[in-house]
What does this fold into?
Amino acid sequence: MLSHNKLPDSSRAKRFSALILFVLAGLWAGPARAEFEEEEFFQAGDWVETAAKRVQLIREAPAAVTVLTDEDIHNSGATNLGDLLRSVPGLEVISFSAADYEIGARGQNKAMENGVLVLVNGRSIYEDFYGVVIWNKKSLALEDIRRIEVVRGPGSVLYGANAFHAVINIITKAPGEDPGALVSFTGGPESLIGTLAESGRAGKISHRISAGWTQTSSWANREDVALKYPRGLMSLNYDLGNSRGVALETGLDSGDYEMFYDMLGMFESNGISHHVLAKYYTPDFYFRAFWNALDSKWTEIKDIVFNDMTAIGIPIKVAEDFKFETQLESNTLDFEAQKIQKLGSDHIFTGGANFRHNTTLSPLVGGYRTQNLAGAYLQHEFLFRDKLHSYLGVRYDYHPLAGNSLSPRASVLASPLPGHTFRVSYGRSFRNPTIVENYIDISIPLDLGIDIAIKGNKNISPERLDSVEGGYQSDLLQGRLRLGASIFHNWIKGLTGPLLPEDLIGNLSQGVRGAMDNILDEKAWGVEAEIKARPYPYLTGFANYTYTHVYNELFLEVDRRTPQHKANGGVTLTLDNGLSATVLLNYVGSTNWPHVIRFPNLDKNFWFLPLGPLDAYTLLNLRLGYVFLKKRAEVAVSVFNLLGDEHREFPMERIEQVDRRITGRVQVNF
It folds into this structure.
């Protein structure tokens, strides 16, 4: 992959190396590659490798794509991935605490969101146990990231399960890239983040090492540390010549973190996560194996949600002597191979297969569980005289309980005029049931003398999404102005949740018994539009708008958990004297989280969590920086929520209000 190739130090050498890499990729993509103007290869926001699993220009991608470069990340002043990704159209970001947030896409936003596949250098980082990403605790720092590619729409045709609504691929800086050392410190009244990184090359071996510490206090109380952990990441690359090589990577983080689960409450956990990745790659082939491990020493619910619930008018309280604690050991071993083959001048075939082995040990799921999954995919691309580009692909996946899944995708791109591309796509994606959904077995005693029990279900079907989409991309004024738009309609089948039995009322004295099942279908449609401009080398700006409408029949009230309107914008000014300023604006419309539920198999309606409406909010963020010592040092100050718009992003009183946060930053390069 491109992220594992070393780029030379000088600007001219970087450009030449980038051009060579793209030409090598272009050997498979037909003569159209040779006709692109050279300057197009030099702009980091022009290309993407996640949408089709090969390097290509964004306007050729078969899906809606947004790219955040290292320049975007640096200028944002963000201290975590959640706040950084708020500016991407179509993404749904919810903060549950200063240390816990979830990221969904295209109408899906909830606690423990599991419909977005997140990759780091192509390695999936979701926990198969819950199916979610622990966003707030990772072995990498923002300084380690070269770019983030966000591909919206169903992605299962190439990536399998969990690529339901979007794929987010975090691509780190390659071994040997930006040679030298970096020391950075970001701190304020509520946060402390330090990073030390070093990169270099000796002969055919290049390396990059990064280590640091992350600590965050709660919004409400600076003395309450919500997140703290050390982290480390090391990567090596051995150059075999002719764009071939072997890459190794390992990372580790260990400490305390929070995570909110809407069925239970706010978890406090202490655990260690680590991974090992090995990869052999050539310009048209790779074989990759990785191991993800999570060892949670203890997990405790500090504030259980059942204390806020009512059912058929009866207030619910958990028994005073009940304390929920558990442990978790989770391991994932994944093998994947991919081959790209060009046939003739206009045909490209991409094929691959993977095998995934999961093990879990936790009392939540009755002890030790194992799981073997497999998948294979094939995609055909057809190029016709730079005017027409089509994709046709299908993937097969096997799950030991859920059975077989097929994920087709078809996309046609037309470029009737230079710089303008229109796209029509259809795709299907799926999400397999998680180990928790298959095997969970918990019982919570109430002060009424009964209990609430939730059990897993081995017969759950995969959630399925069918989507049609139209898109437009333009590249104008020699790359200084880019426009993009998408309109989509999604049909979602079989969303999973707890289902109550039909005889609940007559047997209430025996407790409340729920089982996980496919309980809900949804429809969603929306529009995404964005503009990026660089009128001058020292001035950049962007703006985007998202409209989303979600519909289902489960709730008796208006269901607007997803904000219908979202808008983002930003301007960055960078002067020759070293001064820089960035202003970012995030607007999120009002929502309504219904709490009166009509269960499809019951005559009664149930009041559950005391949810309700949330007002719209606006985040205005500011970053001021000064670069000196021949661009080797920088000091900066960032203000998150400059206007102090205090708000909740999930409608429960126990959820913290988002407040203002001020941080200072010092970075020195050696």
